[in-house]
Amino acid sequence: MLTTALLLGGCLNAGQPTARQSDGGTLKITSWNLEHLAERDGLGCRPRTAVDYVELKRHVEALDADVIAFQEVENAEAARRVFDPQHYEVVMSTRPASGRGGPCYGAPGQSIRQQAVGFAIRKGVPWSRNPDLADLALGNPDLRWGVDITIGGRAPVRLLAIHLKSGCNSGQSPSDRNCPVLFDQLPALETWIDARAAAGETFAVLGDWNRRLAARGDAFYAEIDDGNPAGADLTLASGDRRATCKARYNEFIDHIVLGAKATARVKPGSFEEYRYGLPEDRHPSDHCPVSVTLQH
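RESULT FIELD:
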């Protein structure tokens, strides 16, 4: 495992250039929850205008990532409003629409839209798709599937985008209806991680884990970070950094979790938390993107 100092980096704001050099020798990967991104203006639990979609595109440009795992996006058309098709290919979960509806909490008159997981991949980056990790849904149409891709090239990287059950950020209380569901998702995720490690692959799991994995003794992280088989010794890209996206929360729930081979390829100091360059009440999403850069 690399030292924490190797993984730590700075916070980025919109308009600041990234440290990444697009020389073909690095791969910048990002996780970003886009908070109920709908295909059409004015819909969903975070209704937006055309200007809002343009602003989100500006942040995509500032992020300058090669691969972005995104969450809470209605469909591919919604994603393409943010990830310019001239520059990014969009890959979406194949989970059927759940049909879930109902009113939005905190947004009177608005209705819940489909929330899906996917990737935006910079054009020119070679990639292939693997079967979705449908087992994460536990047979529940309202739970999200994982999206599994392989980034090709001289040194392939297997990437799994996830969005786990919310409401169990810490602890493991059986009386909390959300915690049993989250921990029921754990075996499917651990099976995927162990299979990648056993195959000797370079891999990372990135997304909205809805869990404070860096908390001392976290039961969820301890279960998947057991070092068995060899190569399944995991690293949080954020190291011991504290989250700064929201004043109320100083622990990340959006994570990039790296296998041993991916950890060895981390560019020193490349972890970033992107804070939009705006006051918190003007953030275009209730999550801030997190990124790390891998070297060949």
